[in-house]
Amino acid sequence: MKLIVLHGPPASGKLTLATHLKRELGYNILHNHLTVDVAIEVYSKFGEGDFYDFVDNLRTLAIEKACQNKIEGLIVTFCFDEAIDMDIVDHWESIVSSYGGEMLPIYLNVSAAVLSDRVKGNSRIGSKKLQCPIELDKVLFENDFGAISNKNTISVNTDLLCAEQSARLILEHMS
Q: Using the 8-state DSSP alphabet, how is residue 151 labeled?
């Protein structure tokens, strides 16, 4: 199985790009909010207690199940924090490689100004996604979002490229 890990801060375009890649590759998507939304329903407050461990366990279980079910590829979207998330990413890579697959981390590099514009976008309305520039600033300050340290990681600046162009760049890299 090929595990594509699209990562970057909130509003970097992870789900938008994942949708374009799904159309091209036919891979399934396990996007950030599928697991976060489940956790929000079973915890009284976002981030409380072992909230993040629960989310990580849900994602890990889904990745392993995709491997067991011999899914060709899975696209995971994820707000990777360099200070706390490397162990979970290493675990995912270990799982995928134990089934003969490989992981391709793709970092979506976006300026704070573009993120601030995107967080107010219509596509976020009606979701539990971050929608306030002030809250975004707080999240960016409190987290260390960056590229996964891995020999296969590629970085795409989505400030300058639309989703279609970003998808093309990734597909060219994969071939």
A: T
